[in-house]
Amino acid sequence: LETQAAGKKTEFSSFRDFLLKAARVPDGQGRYRPYSFEGREPLIGIVDTIDRVLGSDGREPLPDATIAICGGAQFGKTALELNLGAYCTGARFLNWGFYLPDRELVEGMVDTKFRPDVLDQLDWFAAMTQLGKSVNKSGKSVNRKGAFSVTNGVQRSHGMILGLNKVPTSFTFDVATLDE
Questions:
Q1: Residues 29-39: tens digit of each pLDDT
Q2: For the whole model, what pTM was predicted?
Q3: Which of 23, 60, 65, 79 lies at a CB distance of 3.0 to 4.6 Å from 53, suitable for a disulfide?
Q4: Distances from the Cα of 90 to the Cαs of 68, 73, 144, 165, in angstroms?
């Protein structure tokens, strides 16, 4: 899989490859560093399973598969979820939905995690992304916080971060993520 944007060619063979080549995470001192599985070793099997479901491992994708990631706080689940959204929409051009319990969490996630930790860290992804816009099943443009559209000029995908308190039913996602 390759992504062309802003004069940069980026190739990813899998979600795991995307994490190791592109993803960046806060270092706790106001800077960002490359994603690493160091201290997150249990996530290796999860990432490999995600690649198996998506067909990133060279095999056919698994239709209607569900992966449950259970565990406590502070082990990197949110960084994994948001980077999965960037990989799905920006590298694979799959439509991605990320469901959170309520609208307040959506606003906080977009402002404090998605924009600074993902969008602002990936120049090529930011160049392809239009925030606040998505398209529903009928092709109607939707303006809302948490929505984004990604295009390389040829392919297009959409992503949305949504609250479960009012679940929109007019969106189709290839990959859906549910948090909490």
A1: 999 999 999 98
A2: 0.88
A3: 65
A4: 23, 27, 19, 28
